[in-house]
TrEMBL record:
Keyword annotations of the record: Cell membrane, Membrane, Receptor, Transmembrane, Transmembrane helix, Transport
GO cellular component, one term: plasma membrane
Main location: membrane
Localization terms from the record: Cell membrane
Name listed for the protein in its UniProt record: Stimulated by retinoic acid gene 6 protein-like
TM region(s), chain numbering: 24-42, 135-155, 175-195, 260-281, 322-343, 388-410, 422-445, 480-507
Amino acid sequence: MLPKTTRTGRFNGTCTSSVDMELFLHYSLIPSLFIVLILSFLQRREQRRQRDDTSYLLGNRFGIIMPLDFVGTFSNRWSYGIAFGATANKVMFLFSEGYQPLQIPQWAQAFELLIGGLEVGLSHFPFFACLSSEFQLVSSTLGFCYSLIWFAVTILQVSQCPHGQFVGKYETLVFYWPSLLCLAFLLGRFLYMFVKALRVHLGWELQVEEKPVLEAHQAEHVKQLLRTPRPQEEKKSWFQTRIYEWDPCFQFPSRMIGTIVLAFICLYLFIVIEFCMFVYVRDELEMFENKLESYITSVNHSGILTPAILQVKELISVTKGVWVATILPASLTCVSYLFHILVCYRKHIKRLWAGDKHFLPLRFRNPASSESVVAIARYSGWQIAYILWGYFIIHVVQSLCGMAIMYGLVLPIVHKQGLEMLRGLGIGILTISIVVGLMILQMWIATSFFLQPKLGTADKQKPLALNNRKAFHNFNYFLFFYNVLLGLGACLSRLLISCLLGTWLIARIDRTIMPSGYEGADMGFSAWIGMLYVDHYHTNPVLVSFCHILITDHRERKLQQTTKYWCLNQSAGPRVSARSRTRWLLLQTLINNPRLVMLRKSKLGHSSQESQILMTCSDS
């Protein structure tokens, strides 16, 4: 893209930057690994290894660091989304295959892209790890320092070479301002986390409870299901009816928010890169036009190729204008797709929660578990790639449509051939109208003469029962030959409509563009369905509420068993230490089970003393 050490610009000549972003990406792995090791050391493992395992020496330290929960995280959603946005420039490098950390053969390029993706992921891993860590005092400090390093290096890169040869002034800033904005947000977020954790550490604020199993919006959803439905008194607005209605009992997971934020920034960068390529091609075409103009001048406008050259110049001019004019509608189409994907996600996941699978093809109503697990790992990356390629394809299709409009309607008027254009347009419209009219006439004749009357007055249509059979067979015979010719046009229209809809909906991963029975060939739609099923099985509010009730009941029973013999807690007396409480419970257990004394680990003189004490207690 733009981060190269040397650039040639029309404003600052040859710009030599002291910062090589690709080299900095390599060196950023050192502090990244350092931060990961510190957080891993603080993270305790739930189960300790056995003594015969070499990792037993580490105790319960060096637990696995999780960047974020891709399934059930509903807190800090926008922080994770902004952290994804900070990786947009590097994601675009990977998308354009411009980042190649190794020099390997062409056949092994897939491994090179995999290594590049792992390196980019590891370099930005501290952003997510510090946001999700339980040790916020340490993680906020490390995250702030790491974000400050990236922010300072990016600012240095922009300040040293702000201009370029494509966009012109502040070209580098045009590319890097989304990342700078995301990094600035992360700096503020980590600073807020540090202040809050410091206040908790000093005792000025209460410690926030651990993440609940049941989120508040999930509990509200279950309560809403248990309430008696009431008739809606308030009238919905046009926006709520046609576009989107806010649901307080539903929240999008962090994965969806991060995917949409990153898709927006990557789409913006892709449009800027496309415009830069357009500027480059436009300059080359201008040089070509100058050569054609010099040729026409040299032959004094009387050469044999002069008319063809003028048509070529006109084609170039029209193409440049149409391409620029269709940037806005193509970008708005993809932006609307991003919002529509969120709407479809909520609609589909709610249908699955209600047990409704009729909107899915038969093949996807019981997907394999392994396919669903892989699908949720693929979805976010594939969604962004579909949006970027979809924008380019939609832009090309809209440009072709614009070219057809220019050559069919505008240019004839410019060349004073408006009457001929209107005559041809009128003939075409009349021809299509006659064909459509004949098709409508066939429907009217079939409805009026070849169907039996309605069975009841309340029926909406006539029954499928033939009437006037002899006339019907003559009708079919004489229209047989005409429908052969009509079928040719219908076939071509089917092909044209399929191509237009396929290219128009190529960015829509939430619906398949394959015909019925071939949906399995649409890998993007398969990833969408698998992702929905994983979220359905792991974030279903009814299931999560049930698990929450079981966990709460288990904790209450365990607490009741622990305090069964502990009457001092119910009194107003002085507090007793946990060690004394444990010894008291141990004494009660040994009195009720004297044989357990023989099984306990013996110490010097302790076993005999315990036996005497237990004998005295049992005698008494």
